[in-house]
Specification:
- The protein contains 14 helices and 16 strands.
- By secondary structure, the protein is an alpha+beta fold.
- The strands form three sheets. Strands 1-5-6-12-11-10-7-9-8 form a nine-stranded mixed β-sheet, with helices on both faces. Strands 14-13-15-16 form a four-stranded mixed β-sheet, with helices on one face. A three-stranded antiparallel β-sheet has the order 2-4-3.
- β3 and β4 form a beta hairpin.
Length: about 375
């Protein structure tokens, strides 16, 4: 076996891509800072029970597990940073007002996610804690679109959904956690025949509403109008539809290139989320580039109920799709011992220029730099000339 082979769906990030990723990371985090977000860096390992608090079984299946040799307890290698950030807000910062946090770090998946080709991602996200109104959801959407815009991805297709609709339909139904997981899997796949068969095993009176959910997708105004007619009259359902209507109306002002739609059966993360959910799609990528929404119950699971909303995305995927070239202009200089040359190079580097020194007869080999200038000796001084 070759010693340099990596595990399946694990890959190195080579110089040109790494430079693009890092440039985007800096620009995006600077954008978040301009909105008042504070950067946090949770550990890559945690005790498993803390790491999975408030999450569904999907995250448990995606989490690498190992035994801590110091405590004997089971550790988890994080597959999602959002619960960690919720823990920081709930127990370490312990603030009463609105808190904005952002993060960027590696996550690993035990299984390759559907639609992906990698088990390691560089997760980047932003979360708002302490605000229960729609304003926080709107800010999260705004920040997500600006994030994609920084990467040159202006054409965005945004799908909205709401966890409260299914909660209202199931109100009063005595379903176990595993039954609910099965149900939202059927809804998400829009498998109507199996959904009908599944409901026959229960004294289930909401089959028509569940079937309706699988058909309620498309342009926002059309879906909302139809949903108000076919879904049951329930406080949770009415509130959810009102929130979706207000958010979709406000979101139309964010970008001319934004296409909005609603899919009420898109319940990925249903156990995780408690309110508005959204998924952003871009061209050339079949799965969402980013997901987000409201997840008030996660803070409650940590013993401190805090409204929460936000989003996350994989920065590696974002960089791969970005049409923006991150190649940097560079200056070539000879690799010799000359005091005047060394002084000139130091001054150029201090001003932000890239200076690459090469031996006589060699060529600068750096895919991420465009060596379009060189340092040329003019008498006792050195000057930058175009190549």
């Amino acid at each position: 076996m070759n010693r340099w082979l990596l595990p399946e769906d694990i890959a190195d990030v080579l110089p040109a891509e790494a430079r693009k990723v890092e440039s985007l990371r800096r620009a995006i985090l600077d954008l978040y800072q301009s909105y008042g977000y504070e950067l946090v860096a949770p550990p890559i390992l945690e005790f498993l029970d803390s790491l999975l608090t408030g999450t569904g079984s999907d995250l448990n299946l995606q989490t690498f597990k190992l035994v801590d040799q110091l405590s004997g307890r089971t550790l988890g290698l994080r597959a999602d940073m959002t619960p960690q950030v919720a823990r920081i807000d709930a127990h370490l910062l312990n603030r009463t007002g609105v808190t904005r946090l952002c993060y960027a770090g590696s996550v690993a998946h035990a299984r390759t996610p559907v639609g992906s080709s990698a088990r390691e991602e560089l997760q980047l996200g932003a979360e708002i804690y302490g605000c229960a109104t729609w304003d926080a959801d709107f800010e999260a959407l705004t920040l997500l679109l600006r994030t994609l815009g920084l990467a040159g991805l202006d054409k965005v297709y945004l799908d909205l959904s709401h966890a409260g609709i299914l909660a209202g339909i199931l109100d009063g139904q005595n379903l176990s956690k595993s039954d609910i997981e099965t149900l939202y899997g059927l809804l998400q796949s829009k498998d109507r025949p199996r959904l009908k068969v599944w409901t026959q095993s229960f004294n289930f009176k909401a089959l028509d509403s569940l079937i309706a959910l699988t058909e309620l997708n498309g342009p926002c105004a059309e879906v909302l109008t139809k949903a108000k007619k076919v879904l049951p009259k329930h406080k949770l359902v009415d509130e959810a539809l009102a929130q979706l209507e207000r958010l979709s109306t406000a979101a139309t002002s964010l970008s001319q290139d934004l296409e909005l739609s609603i899919d009420l059966a898109d319940l990925r993360g249903y156990q995780y989320h408690s309110g508005v959910m959204f998924a952003a799609y871009v061209d050339k990528l079949p799965q969402p580039i980013a997901r987000g929404g409201r997840y008030d119950h996660v803070g409650q699971a940590f013993g401190r109920s805090r409204p929460a909303t936000g989003f996350s995305l994989d920065l590696l995927t974002l960089a791969n799709l970005s049409p923006i070239s991150m190649r940097k202009s560079a200056i070539v200089a000879p690799w010799i011992d000359d005091a005047h040359l060394n002084k000139a190079i130091a001054a150029l580097r201090a001003s932000g220029e890239v200076v690459i020194q090469v031996m006589a007869g060699d060529q600068a080999q750096a895919a991420e730099y465009e060596c379009d200038r060189e340092l040329v000796q003019q008498g006792s001084s050195w000057e930058v000339k175009k190549k």
